[in-house]
């Protein structure tokens, strides 16, 4: 019985180079039967399986790969993605942080690490990761949008406004963020700020029925019944189903 995996690896590479993926898979598996920790065979077989939509076996191979070759950021990133897909947020966070130790500018790993931090309740860790990301990539739309989501989730109103300002400077319209910040303002009893932000959301997207609806409620609370009714009429014209449960028949 042969003990040298190299002939199998050479055969696998030759098969792989001519797109004989089944032959390459068999040869890589033959190599791994002789040396279960062979990095080249683990990695290349994982890539083939991933391309054939066999993520479970592929992710198992990548998990083995990072144990024997821990200095490859792409491998840690792929390992993190596999864990994230299985909602193992703590394991995924550890993998993404390993990737960032090796490649500090790996933007996708930063975003995913921040998401995993949020999922595990480590909001300050998420903000720290994204702040570092912004320092490295001050024009990163992905980073700004992820920070914005964190702000809305945690009620960090001031940072949310700063993120919105930067997105607008980058000519990136963000009516949903503006609306969500208005909702946060309302929850924090910042009624004047909420009204202003609902109005700004509507300037960014005039056909935003939820913003019209909520703006109408706040104006009505301030005794501005005519303006409130106009907002409600516009909202219902855009989205009639919003009427269910919101209004008494005589209210609009």
In short:
75% of the residues lie in helices and 0% in strands. By secondary structure, it is mainly α.
Descriptive overview:
By secondary structure, the protein is mainly alpha-helical. The chain folds into 3 domains: 69 residues, Serine Threonine Protein Phosphatase 5, Tetratricopeptide repeat (Alpha Horseshoe), CATH 1.25.40.10; 102 residues, Tetratricopeptide repeat domain (Serine Threonine Protein Phosphatase 5, Tetratricopeptide repeat), CATH 1.25.40; 79 residues, Serine Threonine Protein Phosphatase 5, Tetratricopeptide repeat (Alpha Horseshoe). The protein contains 14 helices and no strands. It is elongated and about 85 Å long. The chain starts with 5 loop residues before the first helix and ends in a 14-residue tail after the last helix. The mean pLDDT is 89.
Number of domains: 3
- Element order: H for helix, E for strand: HHHHHHHHHHHHHH
| Total helical elements | 14
The class by helix and strand makeup works out as: mainly alpha
CATH class placement of the largest domain: Mainly Alpha
Helical content class:
over 70%
- Gross morphology is elongated
Per-chain topology:
Layout: H1 6-17, H2 21-34, H3 39-51, H4 55-68, H5 73-85, H6 89-102, H7 107-119, H8 123-136, H9 141-154, H10 157-169, H11 175-187, H12 191-204, H13 209-221, H14 225-238
Helix pairs in contact: 1-2, 2-3, 3-4, 4-5, 5-6, 6-7, 7-8, 7-9, 8-9, 9-10, 10-11, 11-12, 12-13, 13-14
């Amino acid at each position: 019985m042969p003990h040298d995996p190299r002939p199998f690896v050479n055969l696998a590479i030759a098969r792989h180079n001519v797109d004989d993926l089944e032959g390459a898979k068999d040869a890589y598996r033959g190599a791994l039967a002789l040396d279960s920790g062979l990095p080249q065979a683990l990695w290349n077989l994982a890539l083939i399986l991933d391309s054939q939509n066999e993520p479970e076996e592929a992710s198992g191979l990548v998990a083995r790969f990072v144990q024997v070759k821990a200095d490859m950021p792409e491998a840690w990133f792929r390992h993190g993605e596999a864990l994230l897909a299985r909602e193992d947020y703590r394991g995924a966070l550890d993998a993404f942080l390993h990737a960032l130790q090796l490649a500090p500018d790996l933007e996708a790993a930063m975003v995913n690490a921040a998401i995993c931090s949020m999922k595990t309740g480590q909001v300050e860790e998420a903000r720290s990761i994204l702040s570092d990301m912004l320092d490295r990539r001050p024009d990163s739309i992905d980073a700004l949008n992820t920070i914005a989501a964190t702000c809305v989730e945690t009620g960090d109103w001031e940072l949310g406004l700063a993120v919105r300002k930067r997105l607008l400077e980058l000519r990136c319209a963000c009516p949903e963020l503006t609306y969500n910040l208005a909702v946060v303002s309302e929850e924090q009893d910042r009624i004047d700020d909420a009204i202003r932000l609902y109005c700004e959301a509507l300037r960014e997207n005039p056909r935003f029925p939820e913003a019209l609806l909520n703006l109408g409620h706040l104006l009505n609370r301030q005794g501005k019944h005519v303006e409130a009714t106009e907002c409600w009429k516009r909202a219902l014209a855009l989205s009639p189903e919003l009427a269910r449960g919101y209004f008494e028949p005589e209210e609009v």
